[in-house]
Amino acid sequence: MMDEEYFRELIKARRRSMRKLGYMKKRAVLARLVPVEGHGGEGKAEEGRE
After folding, report:
1. Phi, psi of 21 (to 5 degrees)
2. So which domain of life are we looking at (predicted)?
3. Which structural domain, as residue segments, surrounds residue 28?
4. How far apart are the C-alpha atoms of 17 and 33, rounded to whole Å?
């Protein structure tokens, strides 16, 4: 019984961290696009797709 509860919490925590990781990755990608946009072409096309 105790173990089941523990595993349920573990899975919940892992899902939460995965979501946070995805968010951080997206932020990193956007941060990378912003400087590129200043130089011209590709950055704008990438941002439009977001």
Report:
1. -60, -45
2. Archaea
3. 2-49
4. 24
